[in-house]
From TrEMBL:
Official protein name in the record: Pyridoxamine 5'-phosphate oxidase family protein
Lineage, broadest ranks: Bacteria, Bacillati, Bacillota, Bacilli, Bacillales
Limits of the Pyridoxamine 5'-phosphate oxidase N-terminal domain: 11-96
InterPro entries: Pyridox_Oxase_N (IPR011576), Split_barrel_FMN-bd (IPR012349)
Pfam families xrefs: PNPOx_N
Organism listed in the record: Effusibacillus consociatus
């Protein structure tokens, strides 16, 4: 059976990507040209065609995107594994209202593929625990997601 490729997120994926999800961002390393993977969680689906995430402006992710904006995001859930590809653009200004130095990166989605191997269904999404002060984590989460929603 041919792989189904669509050009935007389903409503289920938009709903799923509303924060606190572990996803894997794939970029091309600006120095070596090799694939680069980073785990991120401050990410929101703004619409079926746009994903935004927050990242430290000193991150290698930013240098990679400035050199080559083509990216993909691997999402585990709902029920499957998805590869979301598009072109990313990093802001130069810090996110307003966020105590941490963070910038917004926006991905214009080109394609979405269900990449789960044949005959399988994902039963649970990955879980993680923040290992720093829970009250501080909640404060940062609130600040970052509020700023990402503003655009």
């Amino acid at each position: 059976m041919a792989e189904k490729v669509v050009t935007e997120l389903s409503q289920d994926l938009v709903n799923f990507l509303q924060g606190e999800k572990l996803v894997f961002l794939h970029t091309t390393d600006f120095e070596t040209g090799a694939p680069n993977v980073a785990a991120i969680s401050w990410l929101l689906a703004i619409s079926p065609k746009v994903i935004r995430f927050a990242v430290d402006p000193r991150s290698r992710i930013v240098s990679n995107i400035k050199k080559d904006g083509r990216v993909s995001v691997a999402v585990l859930g709902p029920d499957s594994c998805y590869s979301i590809s598009g072109v990313a653009k990093a802001d130069t200004e810090n996110l307003e209202g966020v105590a941490l130095k963070m910038i917004k990166v926006e991905i214009a989605i080109d394609e979405v593929r269900d990449v789960m191997f044949y005959g399988a269904k994902l039963l649970a999404e990955p879980k993680y625990e923040k290992t720093y002060d829970p009250k501080l984590a909640e404060k940062y989460d609130t600040e970052v997601y509020t700023a990402l929603k503003k655009g």
